[in-house]
Specification:
binds NADP nicotinamide-adenine-dinucleotide phosphate; NAD(P)-bd_dom_sf; elongated; 4-stranded parallel β-sheet; SDR family oxidoreductase; Rossmann fold
Length: 116
């Protein structure tokens, strides 16, 4: 039985690169991000490398969606050996120009708040 890795933000960027690296190293992959079409495209790339992959649409800001992700991963593979907690966003620009809502989007579980 192959080891598994659960990677959030697996549909592009660092998460996609990490996904393909683990697949080449012989891991089966649980891929998570919000946009399922892009996630499925990466899952197909994993399968073309000879590894098993499942793509699960998940918004990590919502605990119930994260619980669903873990439950589906365990139901499919029986175990999660590695977690890459990569999903996230960051804000670019002069820090003094950031709004409170910019910070909240980066760090808060439930998205933005009012700037008032
Ligand atoms: N690249 C850099 O220079 C840099 C620098 C510092 C820190 N980081 C951090 O490193 C991580 C990856 O960076 P990156 O440049 O590869 O990012 P990226 O290209 O913007 O990709 C972000 C990934 O996270 C997913 N994602 C975003 N919000 C999500 C949410 N709420 N729930 C689930 N998935 C979510 C996106 O897919 P969906 O939109 O479909 O959900 C996408 O797969 C991020 O956490 C970023 O903040 C990156």
């Amino acid at each position: 039985m192959a080891d598994t890795v659960l990677i959030t933000g697996a549909s592009q960027g660092i998460g996609k690169a990490t996904t393909l690296l683990f697949a080449r190293q012989g891991y089966d992959i649980i891929l998570a991000a919000r946009q399922i079409d892009r996630l499925e495209a990466v899952a197909s790339e994993v399968r073309s490398l000879g590894r098993e992959a499942i793509a699960i649409s998940t918004d990590v800001r919502y605990p119930e969606q994260v619980n669903n992700l873990v439950e589906k991963a365990i139901a499919h593979f029986g175990h999660i050996d590695v977690l890459i907690n990569n999903a996230g966003i960051f804000t670019l620009g002069p820090v003094e120009e950031f709004l409170l809502s910019d910070w909240q989007q980066v760090i808060d579980q439930y998205g933005s708040v009012s700037d008032e």
